[in-house]
Design brief:
single chain; alpha/beta; Rossmann fold; 2 domains; four-stranded parallel β-sheet; 9 strands; 18% strand
Length: 291
């Protein structure tokens, strides 16, 4: 039996995650009173679910009973159940925005601000985050990306809980404030000034060949990959769960797109979650993607 405890910040996507796990064949239970978890675990061992994958949601709705979780986890271990903890996290600013959009109040904010409730919840859940086997930061994840991350966990392809997002952008549309590493690639040859390439994007092989067919690109690529090879294992060791690497050019259509694609491909088979996003590729109507 696989016993997965799903927890995390309110608004980080636990309900969506449970629905996806249920679709994947998990026997899911949401918001079971904490004092009943040990009994539920005992029943799963002796009942029809003994050979099934089980997902159990635990969050701040447990109230003061949340303090009983360390003892509950110990009881589950004594039963011989090798449980796993999946923690869904999210940046505070994104959580505030989500609550604002849904016009819902945070379970712990009382008459105060949403930020107060989030801070209090984060403190109460810290011990579960520290024990988590998997951490997914949903701050910038689309539903399909969350599903892909859960599929990776279900298949147990990777237990690092580390995700790299490669982003291309245009400086004319603003620098991404959440970037951990940012590279300016405006020194590379600009396809915009080539009439037959101007209306294409970095996804087109012709543009890619134009940008990469020079020594500056090759030297830069070697240095970037050397840096990432050095940094990523150390980020993982320090407990970092996500890394956003941004490549910027003037408009975000050509050079940055090429670099993002190349680095994404170079990181294939690395054993952790990877996503790519071309933030500004559709902006400026004069530019259109090539066939």
């Amino acid at each position: 039996m696989r016993f997965l405890i799903v927890t995390g910040m309110s608004g980080a996507g636990k309900s969506s995650a449970l629905n996806m796990l249920e679709d994947a064949g998990f026997f899911c239970v949401d918001n079971l009173p904490i004092k009943l978890i040990s009994k539920f675990a005992e029943m799963t061992l002796s009942g029809e679910e003994s050979n099934r994958t089980v997902a159990l949601s635990v969050d701040i709705r447990g109230g003061e009973d949340l303090s009983q979780m360390p003892a509950v986890l110990q009881d589950i271990s004594h039963m011989g159940i090798d449980y796993e903890i999946l923690f869904l996290d999210c940046d505070d600013a994104v959580l505030v925005k989500r609550y604002s959009e849904t016009r819902r109040s945070h379970p712990l904010q009382g008459r105060g601000r949403v930020e107060y409730g989030i801070k209090k919840e984060r403190e109460k859940l810290l011990f579960l985050r520290d024990q988590a086997d998997y951490i997914i930061d949903t701050s910038r994840l689309l539903i399909r990306q969350l599903k892909k991350e859960l599929s990776r966990i279900i298949s147990q392809e990777d237990s690092t809980g580390f995700t790299v997002t490669i982003l291309s952008f245009g400086f004319k549309f603003g620098i991404p404030e959440d970037a951990d590493l940012l590279f300016d690639v405006r020194f590379l040859p600009n396809p915009y000034y080539e009439e037959d390439l101007k209306k294409l994007t970095g996804n087109d092989p012709k543009v890619r060949d134009y940008v990469t067919d020079n020594q500056d690109y090759r030297d830069f690529m070697d240095k970037v990959m050397s840096l990432l090879t050095f940094l990523i294992p150390r980020y993982i060791n320090e407990g970092k769960s996500r890394l956003l690497i941004a490549f910027g050019c003037t408009g975000g259509h050509h050079r940055s797109v090429v670099m993002a694609n190349v680095v994404y491909e170079a990181l294939s088979g690395s054993g952790y979650g990877k996503y790519i996003e071309h933030r500004d590729i559709e902006k400026d109507k004069v530019i259109k993607e090539g066939d």
